């Protein structure tokens, strides 16, 4: 069953076409990754899926329900979204920031259960030691993990993450990707935009590519990790090697 279905999506900024003829399905309880060059339309597509940008043409469905029909608490139950950038000028504690993930359900009066969900999310990401810290004093990587914990506290069925490994060191990149893989097996449907094909290929289940405002897929899904196909997506020669059974790809020096 498809958790997210996009039909005939077209989008333009004024006269500039950003997405065209997008037909796409993200499967339930899978960790899917969207890859492609900067400016190819990945973030725009996510903003449409999250309901931040209004649809100009086409339809988006979550579990068969139109995105336009999902409002307020119902949308919060269905969808959590991490944008590419986020900032806070208020010196809230980490716990208070994470608790805002329950705002659609509890308003200004969080319950004991809400607090438990927040603490569980911090523990899941191994950042419970930050619970009393001032959010504005954290590093970029710590803030990134806090924002993901906020989404887990919301407990949506679908999680959209725009560059989730941004600002993270190598340890936390691997840690987070493993967690996202595990969460997809625990009932979440996770879709992420990423720039590193190797991290995606190591941890994710499904891969989708954007080029020239359209979804490009190889005829054989197993070829998605091949150097030749990636060269056609990134307009850059690639080479590949194997470490055990794991394929590693990298740009070929020009």
TrEMBL record:
InterPro entries cross-referenced by the UniProt entry: AAA+_ATPase, ABC_transporter-like_ATP-bd, ABC_transporter-like_CS, P-loop_NTPase
Residue ranges occupied by any ABC transporter domain in the UniProt entry: 4-237
Protein keywords: ATP-binding, Nucleotide-binding, Translocase, Transport
UniProt-recorded Gene Ontology molecular function terms = ATP binding; ATP hydrolysis activity
Role played? Part of the ABC transporter complex HmuTUV involved in hemin import. Responsible for energy coupling to the transport system.
UniProt record similarity statement: Belongs to the ABC transporter superfamily.
Name the PANTHER family for this protein.
HEMIN IMPORT ATP-BINDING PROTEIN HMUV (PTHR42794)
What name has this protein been given in UniProt?
Putative iron transport protein (ABC superfamily, ATP-bind)
Record the organism: Acinetobacter baylyi (strain ATCC 33305 / BD413 / ADP1)
């Amino acid at each position: 069953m498809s958790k997210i279905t996009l039909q005939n999506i077209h989008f333009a900024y004024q006269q500039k076409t950003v997405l065209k003829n997008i037909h796409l399905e993200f499967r339930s309880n899978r960790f899917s990754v969207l890859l492609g060059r900067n400016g190819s339309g990945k973030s725009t597509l996510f903003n449409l899926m999250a309901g931040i940008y209004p649809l100009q043409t086409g339809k988006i469905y979550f579990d068969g329900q139109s995105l336009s029909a999902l409002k307020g608490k119902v949308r919060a139950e269905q969808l959590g979204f991490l944008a590419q950038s986020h900032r806070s000028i208020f010196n809230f504690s980490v716990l208070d920031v994470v608790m805002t993930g329950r705002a659609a359900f509890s308003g200004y009066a969080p319950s004991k259960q809400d607090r438990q969900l927040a603490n569980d999310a911090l523990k899941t990401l191994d950042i419970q030691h930050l619970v009393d810290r001032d959010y504005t004093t954290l590093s970029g990587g710590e803030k990134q993990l806090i924002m993901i914990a906020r989404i887990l506290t919301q407990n949506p069925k679908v999680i959209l993450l725009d560059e989730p490994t941004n600002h993270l060191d190598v340890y936390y990149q691997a840690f987070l990707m493993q967690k996202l893989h595990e969460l997809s097996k625990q009932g979440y449907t996770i879709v992420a935009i990423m720039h590193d094909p190797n991290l995606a290929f190591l941890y994710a289940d499904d891969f989708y590519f954007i080029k020239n405002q359209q979804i490009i897929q190889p005829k054989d899904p197993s070829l998605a990790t091949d150097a030749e196909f990636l060269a056609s997506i990134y307009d850059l020669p690639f080479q590949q090697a194997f470490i055990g059974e794991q394929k590693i790809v990298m740009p070929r020096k020009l």
